[in-house]
Amino acid sequence: MCAERRPVPEFDEVLPKYLRISGYLRDRIERGELAPGAEVPSERELAAHWKVARPTAAKALNTLRQQGIVESRRGSGTYVSDGPVVRERAPHYGSAYAEGATETVLEAAVVTAPDHVAETLGVPRGSAVLMRKRLTGNETRAGELATSWFGSELAELAPRLLRAERLAGGTLRYLESVTALRVSYLRDRVAARLATADERRHLGLARPAAVLVYQLTLHAAGGAVIQLDEMVHPPAKWMFQKEYSSRS
User: 10 Å Cβ neighbour count for 147?
Assistant: First the structure.
C-alpha cells in the first residue's frame, strides 16, 4: 500500500500576501490585460478581493510604484505607467532597505569628484560635484553606507541636497519636483572589493574586510547620468532580495 502523498504547496503560497498581490497585478500588466494608462484596482478593492487589511493592499501597490510599473494620480487613483522605468539588470536585485531601518545623513557637500565619479557623470577630472553620504542600519548593526553623486549645478537648483537631513520620498522624487529632470532608465552593477578606511569606520569592520558594492546610475532620456548611487554593504549579510515573475 502506497503512503499517502501530501500535496506540494504552490510557490506563491510561501510568499508574503502583498507580494502575491503585486505579482498578480504585474502579470496582468505584462500580459497586456491592463494596458498603459489603465486604472488598476484600488487599495479598497484589492483588500476586499484578497481578504487582506488595507495596509497590505497599499504595500502591494507601493511595490509596483517603486518598480515604475504603476503611478498614482492625486485625487484619481493608480494607473499603469505610460512609460515604465526600464531596469537593465540581470539578475534582478531588490531594495537593500529592511523594514524598520534607520537612516542618518552623515555628510552633504560640494567636493572634488573622484576619478570614477567624474567619468560616470561625464564631467572633467577634478570637477566639483555634489555628494550626499548616508548610513542605514538598525539598533545593533550598520547595514549600508550609501553615497549619492550629482552634478554641481544642482547645488543651486536643488538646495536641499546640501542639507544633512533625510529627504522624504528620496532624492529622485525631490529632484523631479524642483527641476525639469526626468529619469528615463536605470542601470546597475555589483562588485566585491576590500573596504576603504572610511567604510570600515562607518560599518564597524575590522581590517581587512570585504564589502559588496552596488552601483546604480539614473539616466535621462538622452543617456546623461542624473545621479550616481554607490551602496556599500558589510560581509555575511544577505541583501537585495526580490520576488519577480518568471515571465518578466
Answer: 19
